[in-house]
Amino acid sequence: MSFQPIVLSSGYSGWAFLSRTKEDQQEVLSETAQMKRDTDYFRDNIANAKTASDLVSDRRLLSIALGAFGLHDDIGNTFFIKSVLEEGTIDEDALGNRLSDKRYLAMSKAFGFGDFSIANTQLSDFPEEVITAFQDQEFELRIGEQDEDLRLALGVERELENLLATDTTDDGYWFLVMGNPPLRRVFESALGMPSAVSGLDLDRQLLEFREKADKVLGDSSVQQFSDPEKQEWLVRRFLVRAEAANSVAATSSASLALTLLQNVGQ
Question: Mapping DSSP to helix (H, G, I), strand (E, B) and coil, where does residue 49 land?
Answer without folding.
Answer: coil
